[in-house]
From TrEMBL:
It comes from the Bacteria. The gene is lolD. It comes from Cellulomonas algicola. InterPro entries: AAA+_ATPase, ABC_transporter-like_ATP-bd, ABC_transporter-like_CS, ABC_transpr_LolD-like, P-loop_NTPase. GO terms for molecular function: ATP binding; ATP hydrolysis activity; transmembrane transporter activity. This is Lipoprotein-releasing system ATP-binding protein LolD. Keywords: ATP-binding, Lipoprotein, Nucleotide-binding. GO terms for cellular component: plasma membrane. SUPFAM superfamilies: P-loop containing nucleoside triphosphate hydrolases (SSF52540). The keyword Nucleotide-binding applies. Pfam families: ABC_tran.
């Protein structure tokens, strides 16, 4: 469970707060969408939930732990072990192949190459991009890069999945695969939070936070 209590955040003194006194909850085993206008703070809220930003006021509470006062090292540990983040523009390492991009985190934390590669190929296959495994990010489409970024985030079986417009560049069939994958993770117990503009995706009975 993640809860947000009286959360306020601004990027600096010259601009007003992007989020102002926001209180909401994100349940385990559920997919919650964050909707709202462009510039309304959806990505900013995901960065706060992902412990990449610190609130100006209020708190993000992860499983009962108020995160703002945790030491940086502990916040980094939580990010590395529990949180899978899918950025809006994928953010893949341009020098590495698709397969290496997906495997990198697992290798870094000591998983054997054989195990990491099998898992990465399974994920790439499930998301329909396995045939691009030996290409560099510059050689694949934006929609393929989004799916590779989702595979990378899912490699560590995170308990919290934060996805920023994960189907923004995708055709309807590929978007369905991405949303089905995220829903399956929620059904398996993860806390899945997705920022989306897509009105067809948001009102499906999922929990929803409207900014
Ligand atoms: N690094 C930054 N420095 C200053 N202002 C920023 C920064 N990042 C975002 N903003 C501003 O914060 C506000 C919220 O941006 P954010 O990206 O969170 O909105 P969003 O709802 O995700 O938008 P979109 O739907 O267009 O992706 C916007 O006004 C944006 O210009």
């Amino acid at each position: 469970m993640i809860s947000v209590d009286a959360l306020t955040f601004g990027y600096g003194p010259r601009t007003g707060p992007v989020l102002n006194d926001l209180t909401c909850k994100f349940s385990e085993g559920a997919l919650t969408t964050i909707t709202g206008p462009s510039g309304g703070g959806k990505s900013t809220l995901l960065y706060l939930l992902g412990l990449m930003l610190t609130p100006t006021a209020g708190t993000v509470v992860l499983d009962g732990v108020a995160t703002a006062r945790l030491p940086d090292g502990e916040r980094a540990r939580l990010r590395a072990t529990q949180i899978g983040f899918v950025f809006q523009d994928a953010v893949l390492d341009p020098a590495r192949t698709v397969l290496d991009n997906v495997m990198e985190g697992a290798l870094f934390t000591g998983t054997s190459r054989r195990v990491a590669e099998r898992r990465a190929r399974d994920l790439l296959g499930a998301l329909g991009v396995e045939h691009r495994h030996d290409h560099r990010p510059g050689q694949i489409s934006g929609g393929q890069a989004q799916r590779v970024a989702l595979c990378r985030a899912l490699m560590k079986s995170p308990t919290i999945i934060l996805a920023d417009e994960p189907s923004g560049n995708l055709d309807p069939a590929s978007a369905d695969v991405v949303w089905d994958t995220l829903r399956e993770r929620a059904q398996s117990g993860a806390t899945v939070i997705v920022a989306t503009h897509d009105p067809l995706r948001a009102p499906t009975g999922d929990a929803r936070v409207q900014l």
